[in-house]
Structure formats: C-alpha cells, structure tokens
Design brief:
The structure is a single chain. By secondary structure, the chain is mostly helical. The chain has 25 helices and no strands.
C-alpha cells in the first residue's frame, strides 16, 4: 500500500512537471519556427502565415492552461501588474477606434495582432515565472534560429544575387531579404536575436559558448553588411543603453566590481574589438567601407530622406484632422491619399504605412491610443531600471540589461520604419518584455489563494479569440493565394480567370490586396474587356466603397458613365478623383472632355488651364484652339 501511494505521488509530481515543460518547449518552437515561416503562394510571403502559426501556439498554450488540474495551476497573480491593464486598454481603444475606419475589415489584422501579442505576453510571463529553465531553452532556440536565418541570407547571396553584381559582390547584400519582405525587416529580425546570442556569451560554457560567439559575430556581420541605417541607429541606442544601465548598477552596487563579471565583460569587449578591427581592414581592402560610410553619413542628410520626410509631413496633416480618435487601425493607407498633393506634386503615392510606427499609431488610434502604446514601453523601462537598482543576481542583471537595451534600440528603429507590422518582430518583443516582467515580479514563497475564476476566464477568452484569429488568418491566406493566381492570369490577359479568382479572393474580411488595390478593381477591368460595362461599373463602385480615395476606381466609373452618355455622373467621379489627386493629368483632361460634351465651355476652359502644357493627349492642341475660340467668341 505504501509503495502504491508513493508511486501515485511520484506520478503526480512528474505530471506536474511535464505540463510546464511542454508549455516551455511550445514557446521555444514558436521562437524557432516563426522567423522561418515563408509562403510562396501568398503576395506577402510571411505576414498572414506567421499570424496563423502564432494564433495556433497561443490556442494550444491557453488550452493546456484550461485543462490542467486545479492543483497544478501556475502562479497567476502577476496579471495584476500595471502593464497588463495598460495593454488591455490599448487593445480596447484600438477596437473602439475602428468606428472611425473607412474600411473596418482592414483593421482586423491589426486588432488580431494586438490581442495575440497581449495573450502571448501573459502566457510567456506565466511560463518564465513558473519555470526557471525556460530562459535557457528560449535563448538556445533563438541562437539556433539565428544560424538558420543567416544561412537563408547567404544562400540568396551565393545562388541568386551575387551573379548580377560580380564587380561589387558586397553591394549585392543590399538585395537580400532573408525570409522577410525586404532587407530592412531582415536586419531588424537579426537585431532582435542579438541579445539572446550575447547572453549566451556570459551564461554558457564549452561548445554552447562557441556557438554563442559565432552567432553574435554573424549577426553583427550581417547587420553591418546589409546597410540598414535604422538598425545601425538601433545598435547605437542598444550600446548606449548597455553602458548607461551598467553605470547605474556600478554606482549603486560598488562591491560588484570585485566580482568576475567586469573581467568577463572586458575580455568579451576586447575580443569583439579585435574582430571588429579585422573586419574593418577587410572591408577597407574591398572598398565596402566607403559604401558603409556613405550610408552612415546619409542618416542625418535631409536631402537624401526627402521622400520619407514628405510622407511624415503628409501624415502629420492627417493626424491634425483626426487627433483624438484617429482614422482606425489599418486605415492610414486608405485615408492618406488626399494629403499627398501638398507634398508630392505630380507624383501619386501608394504607401502601405508612413514608415514610422509612432506616426502610424498616432494617426490610426489617435492621441489616446498613442499614449497607451507609449505607456507600455515606459512601464517596462521602469521595471528594467528598478531591477538594475535592486537585483544582485548576476544572470538576472545581464538578462535585464540586454533585453531592456534591445527594446530601446527597437524603439529607435520604429521611428524610421515599421517593425510593428511584422508578426515575428512582435513575438520577439513580447518574449523580451515577458522576461523582464518575470524578473521584476517577486513570486511569493507562500502564494495567495489562486483566483481560479480569473485564471479560467482569461484563458477561455484567449482561447476564443485565438480561434477567431486562426479562422481570420486562414481566410487572408486563402484570399492572397487567389489574388496571386489572379495576377498570373492577368499577365496572360485571361479575363474570365481573373473574375473567377477575384470572386474567390473577395470576402467580408478581405477587400483589398496587400498592395492596397481593391480586389473588385481587377474584376471591373476584366468585365470591361469582356464587354460587360454595367457589371464593371458595379465592381468599380464596390472598389470605391472599400477604398474611397482610390483614383483608378473613380476614373473607371467616370469612363463607363461617359460611354453611357451620363456625362454629369462622369463629371462627378472625375471631380472626386481630382479632389484626391489635384494633379491627376488623365483625370483633368478627361474632365475637360466631359464639360465640353455638355457645352459647359467655361468650366472646360478653367479645367484645361490646370492641365500640364506637356500633355501627351493627341487632341490637346485641338481642345486648346476650340476652347479659346469658344471663350473669345463670347
């Protein structure tokens, strides 16, 4: 009997240990696999597929929490830390700001991403607080992942790109994107792996130390050679952060100078200085150093950043008009076109984001959303600094300094680009924040009575919304795959297949493609070619509904109205297009024609004067003579 009781107790202990281990390794699987997910059948190769994978992992983790026996429930009182209510308010305000959206469906991706990020932060914090070995498992996963990420970049370099740049092999690194959409996002993903590799230098011994050194070197080499200026700024801020946190600690804890930590820091620093000096000599001999110096010096040159600055200025005008509530998540790209004209002249722009996360959050979620967005980083910075001031454990200090400095570097990068959009960047960011939370939270030796209802409610909510996110991500992936096939059919002018794939791609959740083109627009063009003007007009009307400022939709509705002799309708649609894009050359001249057809010569002449004198329209000169004669004749 005693043996059977002992066996049952042993089994219970083993079962109690297995569940946290499973959750820990699920988190490691997420960290390792998500940067490697890449689809060739979708227009954006990784955005929706990575969200789907994140939603699946969040679903599994929350499901495990729900089915666990009550006695095995993890410590969950950390949920009372102020960062979690602040994050929840940011999520709820983002949902509320959808009421201002031109096309609410375009905000669903952002809403899903925010909630999954919050859910991951809660679940990762729980895992780190309740499993002491989780840190090392995650660090090793990231280090291994860094090799896979760098290997993909080098594979692209040697197999596809270097062939076209035989005279300047280093220059071809600019065209490497790894498993990201472009080289800038690839460099950001490597930067977010850097603190984990650096931690391995301090924590590991033997062959894992060697692997950590190699991982750190190849990450730094790639970041240097990719010549992504925003990431260089991030590295600078990261370095300054490490120095400042180190000074704070040393001033507060002078006795630590006697420990072995400063000695190891000096050795590692000298090693990297030596490697850096050697790399500098190699770059200097190959001429690459000149390109790097040129890119570095251009960071502060306004003339070389005019395009982006103009976009920021246009965005600021949009913010001014929508300061409190914003234009709704995912709707910057739909609301910005009318603000282009004052900054871009004749050029029509079609950017998906303003290339600054701060401007995007402020423009889409208003000042309230922006305050809570920034509050998350202020709170986690406070946690990190407090750990540095009070903690004595060497490993915890190193983790905190590396993670908080990387977060500050990430914030600097976010000023120039859009890491907030990318799923794997947010996963790494949430993992780093969760690590700091787990170190800041003092797990009581005798925990208070666990709030079972709160634990279950939160996990059930996460479970339900993760299921919704899985469903939504699947729809987006399927839609993008059909748009991909649509574009293939377009190249061969297969109009019937275009309509077929467009009908499959269009759902209540997917109305635009990743290039911000209404999917109905493709269908409308196909129906024009198939001599179905009425159906084409309906397609363009729906395209206009989902993207009111899309000039092509307005222009096509005007053209069809004109062919049906509905000239006043044509004038209305052309006028809308010109209101969005005052320098729309084709629209202006077509408007002249419409005024002429209804004998409104005065309006035709006034509009004609706005046309560019270099107009290539064949009847431009004829219209000039006729309208001048009509006006003078009166």
């Amino acid at each position: 009997m005693n043996r059977s009781k002992q066996r049952k107790k042993l089994l219970k202990k083993q079962k109690k240990k297995i569940i946290p281990i499973i959750q820990c390794y699920l988190l490691a699987v997420l960290i390792f696999i998500i940067p490697l997910i890449y689809s060739t059948s979708t227009l954006d190769p990784n955005l929706a597929p990575r969200m789907l994978f994140l939603a699946i992992i969040v679903f599994i983790l929350s499901f495990i929490n729900i089915i666990k026996p009550v006695k095995d429930e993890s410590e969950f009182n950390f949920i009372n830390l102020i960062i979690f209510p602040a994050f929840l308010v940011y999520f709820l305000w983002s949902v509320f700001s959808l009421t201002q959206a031109v096309n609410p469906a375009e905000g669903l991706f952002d809403i899903s991403k925010i909630f999954l990020s919050l859910a991951l932060l809660i679940l990762a914090s729980q895992i780190f607080i309740n499993n002491k070995n989780a840190f090392l498992v995650l660090v090793k996963s990231v280090i291994i992942c860094s090799f896979a990420g760098v290997a993909v970049g080098f594979y692209q370099y040697f197999n596809f790109i270097s062939v076209a740049f035989r005279d300047d092999l280093f220059a071809s690194f600019e065209n490497i994107s790894g498993l990201m959409a472009n080289k800038n996002q690839y460099a950001i993903s490597l930067f977010l792996m850097l603190p984990f590799a650096l931690y391995g230098l301090f924590k590991f011994k033997n062959w894992w130390l060697g692997i950590s050194i190699l991982s750190t070197l190849i990450i730094l080499f790639d970041i240097t050679i990719l010549r992504t200026r925003s990431v260089w700024v991030g590295i600078l801020i990261f370095t300054i952060g490490i120095i400042l946190l180190g000074i704070i600690y040393l001033i507060k804890n002078k006795q630590t100078i006697k420990s072995g930590l400063p000695k190891k820091v000096i050795i590692i620093t000298l090693f990297f200085v030596a490697v850096g000096f050697g790399s500098y000599k190699i770059f200097q001999e190959t001429g690459t150093i000149k390109s790097i110096e040129k890119d570095a010096s251009s960071i502060l040159e306004i003339d070389k950043n005019q395009h982006r600055i103009r976009m920021w200025e246009s965005t600021w005008y949009l913010i001014h008009d929508n300061f409190f509530l914003g234009v709704g998540p995912g709707n910057w790209k739909l609301s910005i076109p009318p603000y282009y004209s004052s900054k871009f002249g004749l050029a029509y722009e079609n950017w998906r984001q303003p290339h600054s996360d701060y401007l995007q959050v402020l423009s889409e979620k208003g000042i309230v959303g922006f305050i809570f967005f920034m509050l998350l980083f202020i709170i986690i910075s406070f946690y990190g600094i407090k750990i540095m001031l009070k903690e004595q454990n060497r490993n915890k200090l190193i983790i905190t300094a590396l993670m908080i400095s990387t977060i500050w570097g990430y914030l600097a990068i976010s000023f120039f680009t859009f890491p907030l959009e990318r799923i794997n960047h947010q996963v790494f960011l949430m993992i780093m924040i969760a690590m700091i939370i787990s170190l800041y939270y003092n797990k009581p030796e005798k925990p208070k009575q666990k709030n079972k209802k709160l634990f279950i409610r939160i996990n059930v909510l996460v479970l339900i919304i993760s299921i919704m996110s899985i469903y939504y991500s699947s729809i987006v992936i399927r839609s993008e795959a059909n748009v991909f096939n649509l574009l293939v059919a377009k190249e061969s002018n297969n109009w019937k297949m275009i309509i077929k794939y467009a009908d499959k791609a269009i759902t209540r959740f997917t109305t635009l493609d990743p290039f911000t083109t209404p999917i109905h627009l493709y269908k409308g063009v196909a129906n024009i070619q198939l001599k179905n003007p009425r159906q084409a007009f309906e397609d363009f009307r729906l395209a206009h509904k989902y993207f009111p400022a899309h000039v092509d939709a307005l222009n096509n509705m005007a053209l069809i109205s004109s062919t049906m002799n509905r000239h006043k309708n044509a004038i209305y649609y052309y006028s809308l297009a010109i209101k969005v894009y005052p320098n729309y050359k084709i629209g202006l001249f077509n408007l002249v024609r419409e005024y002429y057809k209804i004998n409104d010569y005065k309006s035709a002449y006034i509009t004609f004067l706005k046309c560019n004198s270099n107009n290539n329209e064949p009847d431009y000169e004829e219209f000039r003579r006729v309208l001048t004669r009509q006006i003078n004749g009166r």
